[in-house]
Amino acid sequence: MSTNAALFERAQRVIPGGVNSPVRAFRAVGGTPRFITRAEGAYLYDAEGRRYIDYIGSWGPMILGHGHPAVLEAVQRAVTEGLSFGAPTEREIELAEEILKLVPSMQQVRLVSSGTEAAMSAIRLARGATGRPMLIKFEGCYHGHADALLVKAGSGLATFGNPTSAGVPPEVVQHTLVLEYNNLEQLEAAFAQHGARLACAMIEPIAGNMNFVRASLPFMRRLRELCTQHGALLVFDEVMTGFRVGLRSAQGLYAVALPGFVPDLSVFGKVIGGGMPLAAFGGPRDIMQQLAPVGAVYQAGTLSGNPVATACGLATLREIQKPGFFDALTANTRSLVEGLAAAARDARVPFVGDSEGGMFGFFFASDLPQHYSQVMSTDKERFNRFFHAMLEQGVYLAPALYEAGFVSAAHSRADLDATVAAARKAWAA
Ligand code: PMP
Asked: 168-209, pLDDT tens digit by residue?
């Protein structure tokens, strides 16, 4: 049996940092990443045979838990029929129909293989459809690693952003304006100054890449108004929130609070693939018709609409539509956050948490942060200690304070109780 430490050492020899996606390396919290050998229900098992209650769920897709029988059966059947054809299939239509049925803001959808690809393509489409170059992004939101989106705020609003990655020339982000999340004043100023050149504003409606931060209703209402007024498209990145915060996704929640509310374009990933590489972007027919092969905006993919991935996504979407699914998931997730908050209160640990559907976040702070710099000023040292104390007790939380958490339908009452008990122990130490 290889230990996690031995595997990590071996991995680092052949893979940069030993991982194929940076956050897996535990850089933010320190320590040795766990090498996972298998997963079942709410649990992950590592190379040393240890079991963990999984609150990452592959960073969102595993809403049914690992190895759900209906998903396994659909995938196994699809595998025997063929892994990839590079030609259209009926299953792609079925998945598109299923997604469109649940997301009334979209009349057409294009399937791709990753959230990065979907967000990047949605921006190209927004630029092509409007004939404009600029876009707004909000600090702390992540939309994948396309060049134009790897950008942080410059020194002032009038200046454009700076690349957050080497290898992205400043010219490539010169059209990206980075604004503070939930900051109405900056939003007004940005549209006043640049409105006529803006192709789109892209936003995570509930940001899951700076832990868990909701866009306030006044902020979202004004963002929608300004986009409409200035002819810019409002693009919802629902890669994380899609079919996770509710069956109608985050846009469904905003539509309840702000009647008539719809984004122009939407980006999905994670849950719609059920754990296989699959993502999508969509919107009104007239905009989507501007995509190749019918329109002038080019976009393509060898494995797009892959027959195994679509089978996995379809089976997942069918399960989450069963009566009561989101009621139970929402109640369980809320009770986890409430349990942690109660334990923190008893231990006199400053703690705030929030959740929606099966997505949650918590901070070692006295108030819920409203934007990125507030998130980053919460107690990181305490988070890191807590993360390791929980991991030691078999609870696998996201290994960075700026990541959201996920509960699946496979998490039992006993799993949630064990998690809260572990937190009490962590805070008693
Ligand atoms: N958008 C959001 C909101 C995300 O959370 C992520 C990934 N965590 C992405 C886009 C990029 O998706 P992918 O990792 O599949 O490229």
From this structure: 999 999 999 999 999 999 999 999 999 999 999 999 999 999
* Ligand 1, atom 14, residue with closest C-alpha: 115
Per-residue pLDDT of 98-116, as tens digits, reads 999 999 999 999 999 999 9
* Distance (Å) from CA 421 to ligand 1 centroid: 32
Angle of CA points 269, 227, 235, to nearest 5°: 5
In the chain, % of residues over pLDDT 90: 97
Active-site residue, 237 included:
yes
Distance from residue 118's CA to the centre of ligand 1 (Å): 9
CATH code assigned to 69-320: 3.40.640.10
Domain borders along the chain are: 4-67+323-428, 69-320
Is the predicted pLDDT of residue 159 greater than 70, yes or no?
A: no
In this structure, the residue with its CA closest to atom 1 of ligand 1 is: 143
Domain 4-67+323-428, CATH among 1.10.3080.10, 3.90.1150.10, 3.40.50.2300, 3.30.200.20:
3.90.1150.10
Q: H/E element holding 122?
A: helix 115-130
Q: Is the CB of 138 under 6 A from ligand 1?
A: no
Which residue in 43, 264, 270, 354 is the catalytic one? 270
Ligand 1 centroid to Cα of residue 240, in Å, is 7
ipTM for the assembly: 0.99
CA of 2 to the centre of ligand 1 (A): 31
Among the atoms of ligand 1, which is closest to the Cα of residue 114? 15
Could you tell me which of 274, 361, 336, 271 has the C-alpha nearest to residue 311?
274
Cα–Cα nearest to 340, from 370, 360, 368, 369: 360
Give the position, in ligand 1's atom list, of the atom nearest the Cα of 21.
14
